Amino acid sequence: MAASTVRMVFWSLAGGACYYLATQIAWLLCFPDSKVSLFFPPHAVMVSILLLVPTRQWWAFTLAAAGGHFFATQQADWPALYALQCEAFDAVKYLLTAAAIRFFVKAPFHLISLREAVSFVLVAVILVPFVMAFWGATFTVAYRFGADYWIEWLKLGISNGVTTIVLVPVILIGVHQLFAQKKVAWHHLPEAALLAAGLIIVGWFAFMRLSAGPESSPAFLYACIPLLIWAALRFGLGGISASMLVVTAMAIWGTMQGHGPFLAQSPVENALTLQLFLMFAAAPLMLLAVAIEDERRSTVALRASEERMNLTADSAQLAMWDWDLSTGKVLIQDRGRFGFDPNNAIDHSTLSGRVHPDDLCVRAKAITEAMETGSYECEFRTLQPDGSIRWIAARGRRTHVTADGAPPRILGVAWDITQQKQAGEEAQRQREDLVHLSRVATLSALSGSLAHELSQPLTSILSNAQAGQRFMTREPPDYSELPDILEDIVNEDLRAGAIIDRLRTLLRRGQVALQPVNVQEALEDLLRLTRNDLIARQVQVVNLATGALPSAMTDRVQLQQVLLNLILNACDAMETNAPRDRHLTLTASVEQGELRIGVLDCGIGLPDNLESMFQAFHTTKPHGLGMGLSICRTLIGSQGGKLWAERRPERGAAFYVSLPLANPLA
């Protein structure tokens, strides 16, 4: 804390010393018979210092500058009261100027934008100096240091404005270059030396060589303008500011020595003419330099942005395209997607010729929507020159008609998603294999009961056939019982065939087909399939899924697989119950526009974290894989339904499956 205070005191005193020296220079450049200087360096020095230090330290530098200036005025025998008014006037003036620049100019001065430069000229060069000149001219005339109020007002305003626009940029950019530690651009030094020599020679001839009189033509005022434009074009704001400082110094020095084109009128008019020349030369050239630098930075930023975009496109293997809707021409950076020349525009019809015929309607619909909504998004297949087919994803956006009448365009990118599509198809096949294996594994648990159920009709068929043989071997043959025997054989065969059909349906592989399904019939088939297993486990089933229920939009086989898994899980959960306490309840109802199926048991209940049961490889069974409920939820979710579990209030668990209705209005 003490060290920072010492540093602030040191630098503020150094600033005060600089202000004192600048004041001595300013007094050498005063108007005839006036306290107003042609060029007032103290103002620019203090504005620059305030812009370089933190705002919280402004008070210290202001006091130091006021002290240095007051000391100088007392050395020059100025009236103390007049000197104090000068201190107040100067302090308010450079504080307002620095505050305005800091408010309107956010970038460092060497990176100032054109908008910020215009704000700098309007506020710091024109508004603040000329507004403050009303105050300065008032006490200057009051103390008889000036005779005409408006002349003093004009001299004060122009003096501070010229100093600000010429000297402040030089100081700020010079300090930046001093501490930036940038490498010297040696290749610019010969050009800079040539420019400096030209300015000195032309300035010496125009402002210091010619004597006052008729031969001092005002045309010489423009002799240095081409060199100043050269500085603005080639060296930016720093170059034009340094060049203007050289021209200003030579013009003021030559005029005060009685040379140059500014001596054709009275002394006051000559001084004002010189100041106006400097201001009107510096302001547009400064804005020109800033505009050129702004454009140069924009060009560099645009080039860098294009390079980044190209790098991104190359890395992501993107093809960028531009479709002119008025001509139908498409310019595409192909990158091998379609096999077109990236440097030549192609017709839209030619591009469409590479699209797979089955996807033309999809792409045309996407283009129509883009014309209406402004956003283009589509996935389609393309036919490659070698006969292969590739999947392409395209995204784009329609531009609007601009003020200059440019036609709308669709700009976008395209990328190859063939591998993603192939990976998706492979993943879908693997999911189908997993679902099928899960279904086979579930049915394997019923193999014993299924064998027992099939043995009954087969045994009956065998018994009836043997009875028929015995009746046929009698003498004479007894044909009276054959019709009944044959009818029993047919019925038992149909019964066995129905069992096999139900088993084959559940074991069948195929595409998922969402269609209206009678859930009651699907449940009854499933109960018939599991009847012997439920009897063997001594589980009593209460089927409440009765009455008129609408059809659900689902896949019958997958629904039966899910319900079969839930029923077997419920039976496992009730294994430790007494045989008379194993009750399985099935429910079905329409709730909230969905068909809800419930499988309720009175077993051991559910874990604390219900969602953990639906995670892959989570199981509570000694020999379980933990995939059943996970697969069931995936199957139901793919059909637009939901599967969840709840704890029953009394005991046990309740699993619910909700499915969309085949007819939502039913």
3D structure, described in words:
The protein is α+β, with helices and mostly antiparallel strands. The chain folds into five domains: 10-173, Orthogonal Bundle (Arp2/3 complex 21 kDa subunit ARPC3), CATH 1.10.1760; 183-311, no CATH class; 317-416, Beta-Lactamase; 438-510; 513-666, Histidine kinase-like ATPase, C-terminal domain (Heat Shock Protein 90, 2-Layer Sandwich), CATH 3.30.565.10. 59% of the residues lie in helices and 12% in strands. The protein is built from 18 helices and 13 strands. The strands form three sheets. The protein has a six-stranded antiparallel β-sheet. It has a five-stranded mixed β-sheet with strand order 8-10-11-13-12. Strands 7-9 form a two-stranded antiparallel ribbon. Strand 1 (318-324) and strand 2 (329-332) form a beta hairpin. It is elongated. The chain starts with a helix and ends in a 6-residue tail after the last strand.
